[in-house]
C-alpha cells in the first residue's frame, strides 16, 4: 500500500493509531503533542503517559486514545539534531520502525505519523522526510497497513510532495514498457521501436523536448579500456585518492576497490556496484552510460529503477543514501541488491 501525505491537524485524521512525537519525560510538550493531549483528554492521556514513564529516543509505547477517533496513541521520542554524527539518523529510523511494529502487534490497519523531530528538535526536514519514506516503505514491503504522513507546516508539505512528484513525473515522461519488443545488440540496450518512436515524435513535434539516447557504441570505439582502468583513470583525472571514492559511500568498501584494481580487466561488477562507482565519481549521464557499458551494463528507459537512478544523476544528487531512500520509497531494494 502506498504512503499517503495529508496537510492537516493530526488529531483530525482517522486512523487506528496516531503517533505522538513525545517528550522523553511524561509531560505535555508543545505543538502537535499539546493538540493530541487536548483532543484525547489531557488528564486521561497524561495519566497513561505517566504509567509508561520515561521513553528513550527511538523507542515507542502505546496508550489508549480516549477522546480521539483513533484506538491508540503511540508515543515515540525522536532525536534532537546536533550535527548528524550522534546517531540521529538511526534513532529517527527506529522511531518509525518501532512504531509500525507496535501498531502491527496491536492489530492496527492504519496509522498516522507526523514528521518526527522536524519541529523544535531541529532535524533537517529534507533528511527527515527521506528517512520517513524509506522506513515506512521498507515495512510496507512485507506488511499491509495504511500509513498516513500528516504534515502541519507548508514547508514540509512542499518538500515531501515536490520530490516525489518530480521523480514520478520523470518516470512517467521517460518510462517505456518494452514488452513484446525487439532489442538490438548495441550496448545502450535501447529498443528499435523506442528509438523510432522518439524520432517520429521529434519530426512531428519539433518543439517538444525529447531525451536522445547517448550513443555509447561510438564512445567505446574510441577507447576499449576496461571498467577497472576507466575508474582508475577517472580517479586520477579528478585528483582524488581511492579513499575519496570508497570511504564516504555505503556500498563501496576498501575491499571492493582493491578487488577492482587487483582483477584489472577481468573485473566485472554487479550493476548496483557499477552504478555506485558512477555516483561516487559524480559522473554526468553520458559518462555514466560510458562507464556502465564497459562493464556490460546500461540504464534503460524500460526499467523504472533505472529511471530513478537517471533522475538522481541528472539532478546531480550523487548521495548514495539519498538514492537508496528514493528506491525504497518507490518499492525497490537498495542499490547494493541491484544485480541486473
Structural description of this entry:
The structure is a single chain. The two termini are 26 Å apart. α3 runs parallel beside α4 and α11 packs antiparallel against α12. Residues 178-222 have low confidence and may be disordered. A six-stranded mixed β-sheet has the order 1-6-5-2-4-3, with helices on both faces. It is α/β, with parallel strands linked by helices and 340 residues long. The chain has two domains: 3-169, Leucine Aminopeptidase, subunit E, domain 1, CATH 3.40.220.10; 216-337, no CATH class. The protein contains 14 helices and six strands.
Proportion of β residues?
5-15%
CATH architecture of the largest domain: 3-Layer(aba) Sandwich
- How many helices in DSSP terms? 14
The secondary-structure class comes to alpha/beta
Descriptors:
six-stranded mixed β-sheet; alpha/beta; single chain; 340 residues; elongated; 2 domains; Leucine Aminopeptidase, subunit E, domain 1
Task: Provide the fold topology.
Elements: E1 3-7, E2 17-21, H1 31-40, H2 42-52, E3 60-64, E4 72-76, H3 88-105, E5 110-114, H4 125-140, E6 146-151, H5 154-174, H6 192-204, H7 216-222, H8 227-237, H9 242-246, H10 254-263, H11 271-280, H12 285-294, H13 304-314, H14 320-329
Parallel strand pairs: 1-6, 2-4, 2-5, 5-6
Antiparallel strand pairs: 3-4
Produce a short descriptive summary.
This protein is an alpha/beta fold and 340 residues long.
Amino acid at each position: 500500500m502506498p504512503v499517503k501525505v495529508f496537510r492537516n491537524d493530526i488529531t483530525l485524521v482517522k486512523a487506528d493509531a496516531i503517533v505522538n512525537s513525545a517528550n522523553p519525560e511524561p509531560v505535555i510538550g508543545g505543538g502537535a503533542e499539546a493538540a493530541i493531549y487536548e483532543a484525547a483528554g489531557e488528564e486521561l492521556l497524561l495519566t497513561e503517559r505517566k504509567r509508561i514513564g520515561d521513553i528513550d529516543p527511538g523507542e515507542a509505547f502505546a496508550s489508549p486514545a480516549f477522546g480521539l477517533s483513533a484506538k491508540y496513541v503511540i508515543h515515540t521520542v525522536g532525536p534532537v539534531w546536533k550535527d548528524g554524527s550522534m546517531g540521529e539518523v538511526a534513532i529517527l529510523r527506529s522511531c518509525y520502525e518501532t512504531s509500525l511494529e507496535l501498531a502491527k502487534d496491536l492489530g492496527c490497519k492504519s496509522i498516522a505519523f507526523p514528521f518526527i523531530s522536524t519541529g523544535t528538535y531541529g532535524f533537517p526536514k529534507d533528511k527527515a522526510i527521506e528517512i520517513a519514506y524509506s522506513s515506512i516503505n521498507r515495512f510496507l514491503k512485507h506488511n499491509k497497513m495504511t500509513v498516513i504522513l500528516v504534515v502541519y507546516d507548508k514547508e514540509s508539505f512542499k518538500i515531501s510532495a515536490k520530490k516525489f512528484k518530480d521523480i514520478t513525473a520523470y518516470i512517467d515522461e521517460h518510462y517505456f514498457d518494452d514488452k513484446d519488443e525487439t532489442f538490438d545488440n548495441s550496448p545502450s540496450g535501447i529498443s528499435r521501436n523506442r528509438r523510432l518512436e522518439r524520432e517520429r515524435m521529434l519530426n512531428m513535434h519539433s518543439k517538444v523536448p525529447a531525451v536522445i539516447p547517448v550513443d555509447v557504441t561510438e564512445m567505446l570505439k574510441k577507447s576499449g579500456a576496461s571498467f577497472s582502468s576507466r575508474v582508475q583513470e577517472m580517479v586520477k583525472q579528478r585528483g582524488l585518492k581511492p579513499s575519496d571514492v570508497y570511504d564516504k559511500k555505503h556500498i563501496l568498501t576498501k575491499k571492493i576497490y582493491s578487488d577492482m584494481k587487483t582483477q584489472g580487466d577481468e573485473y566485472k561488477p554487479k550493476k548496483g556496484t557499477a552504478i555506485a562507482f558512477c555516483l561516487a565519481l559524480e559522473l554526468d549521464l553520458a559518462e555514466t552510460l560510458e562507464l556502465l557499458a564497459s562493464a556490460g551494463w546500461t540504464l534503460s528507459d524500460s526499467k523504472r529503477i533505472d529511471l530513478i537512478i537517471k533522475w538522481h544523476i541528472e539532478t546531480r544528487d550523487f548521495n548514495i543514501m539519498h538514492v537508496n531512500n528514493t528506491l525504497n520509497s518507490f518499492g525497490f531494494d537498495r542499490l547494493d541488491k541491484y544485480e541486473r
